[in-house]
Amino acid sequence: MVAITNMVDYAVEDGVAVLTLNNPPVNALSHGVRAGLLQGVEKAQQDQAVSAILIYCEGRTFIAGADITEFSSGMKEPGLHQVLTAIDNSAKPTVAAIHGTALGGGLETALSCNYRVAVSTVKCGLPEVNLGILPGAGGTQRLPRVVGVEKALQMITTGVPIGAVEAHQLGLVDALVEGDLRAEALAFAKQKAAEGGEHPRVRDREDKLQPARDNPEIFAMARQMIAKRARGFLAPEYNIRCVEAAVNQPFDEGLNTEGKLFMELMSGPQARSQQHFFFAEREASKIAGIGKEVAERPINKVGVIGAGLMGGGIAMNMANVGIPVTIVETKQEALDRGLGVIRKNYENTAKKGRLSPEQVEQRCGLIQGSLALDDLADCDLIIEAVFENMAVKKQIFTNLDKLAKPGAILASNTSALDLNDIAAVTSRPEDVIGLHFFSPANVMKLLEVVRGDKTADDVIKTGMSFAKRIKKVAVLVGVCFGFVGNRILFSRQYQSDKLALEGANYARVDKLLYDFGFPMGPFQMADLAGLDIGWLKETSKPDLFVKDRLCEMGELGQKTGSGYYDYDEKRRPVPRQQTTDFYLETSKALGVEQRDISDEEILDRLLLSMINEGAKVLDEGIAQRASDIDVVYVYGYGWPVYRGGPMHYANSLGLDKVLEKIRHYHQLTGDDFWAPSPYLVKLAEQGESFK
Ligand code: CAA
Known about the structure:
Helix content is 48%, strand content 12%. The protein contains 28 helices and 20 strands. Acetoacetyl-coenzyme A binds next to β6, α3 and α12. The site of acetoacetyl-coenzyme A (CAA) has 24 residues, from β6, α3 and α12.
């Protein structure tokens, strides 16, 4: 065996040149891999002892794509194109031996080979769309030639990989192997070399393109199918255009089109934002100061207190991954209602074909109801999910302290209250943690893991990895009112209310945020959540707050058919004159002069209020890193990922510009809300960005 580069070895076995890639953890196509592959393929052409070439990967996976870390620093020669052209032009048959995942440039490499052999657990896909780009090394031209245009459009626009069986049926994989992949792929390569003749080149295939040539409507349909999901994103449309080029242009012209569109996307802000987010999401799982030596606590049985919307959704997360869960309520009626909602949710999923009837029964079977808190005595993790009332939560934790087994983790799902106060009523504050799920808890990916002053390291570590186990993206946050997500949201809500008082129509405020890329604006969001969240009759101030006035009228948002908006039978919002009138009346009563407010000011005030609060959250150590705030906002509040999250967005604007604007609004409104975060001032003055 000869090392061609530090990442690629060359060996000849049974007349087959085996190029072995070793670039942990995912064999990304870093410079050393590209250079090694190119030299290896060239060497094999000259090597008289070689009649076929096999590309094989060490470690847990075949090539999982280009090395994304190289995107921002620029790629050294040879580029992937050059490498894949050399593979494609090889005079000797080429075989890719695939295990794990063949993604992006990895699948493009495999598609440049004459043959693909895989184990039955592989996943193959082109996920570039999720990074704001497109497969720029021939993937958009080759994949449709192998799997057909319709399937390629689906794979390329969603980025979702397909499994081995489907890949085999579609002809993307030529042979599935059960045993030793390396040995069997080697035998396959040897056999193909022995058979001789022409070896198939994907670039030459036309048969699977013909149906789309006969039916060009296919592209309009693809655009229609993704319209809602792809709103605001550039990459899905660019990917479709490339597949159109595959159908309508000769192969080499199609490659040129792909290359041109790739460069356009790659140099744009959306790609930068989405690539930032790829790493932000992975970074979020890392806990500063808690090392490998800290052992996690085992979680085999979970208890949930409260069978309401949150409690039920939380319990479903456990059942979905096979963890038994006991859900406790105080009244039989509430318990029955909660369990009924869970069953209905599963049955609705089954109706859409995403669960079998057996799976529905299996998951429901994992969720036991109970009226006795004592039934949680043997749970490893107990999650309190009752309404936001400190006295009630303290009572529950006092009881849990008495009954939970030693070492059990006691978690609160509070979305804003002081976790340290809750922990203080127990004799074991080190076992208390916050697990703040987002509604609907069975759907939303975000989990804020709240670390109290006394929470033990192993409890934090267990909370973070448990989140991964139940398929959530966890972000570690500290204690303050609203933690990271809601605290920043309160700032935006404050501004949206102010803007409406100052004369910006509330529906226009919503529309601007929607056009920015959010699924909805603050008023629609409040209507969806229910205006009565956190509202109490005793402290209500209808003269000062339109929201309180609506609550007193019993108009609580979508659930009552009207709130800021009226809702039609399909729950579509219809703006109400009454809401505008209420704002006018409140402005008058408060002596606020209404004026014309530009779109720019509205958007600035909504977004900068979040950024300024985010800077304070960072300064206080409530979030570990700026990118964690981005993860909270993209997964918890619908910040468009193609804008990277609030802190990345601030960086892209330039912190000096951000500060200048914040100071402008401070002066304009005279409201100390706009006092800039000292941390932001420091970074801006030093010409730095949020890290
Ligand atoms: N480049 C650089 N680093 C990568 C990488 C890539 N393509 N893919 C994963 N990594 C890194 C991750 O950042 C992570 O690093 P840390 O441990 O330091 O955080 C490490 O590899 C492990 O990754 P995961 O935690 O995600 O591991 P996993 O087992 O959960 O998932 C995976 C593995 C399915 C391969 C997943 O990492 C993944 O989806 N990777 C990205 C795949 C992708 O998008 N490929 C296309 C790249 S673009 C391209 O190829 C363009 C082109 O046309 C040339």
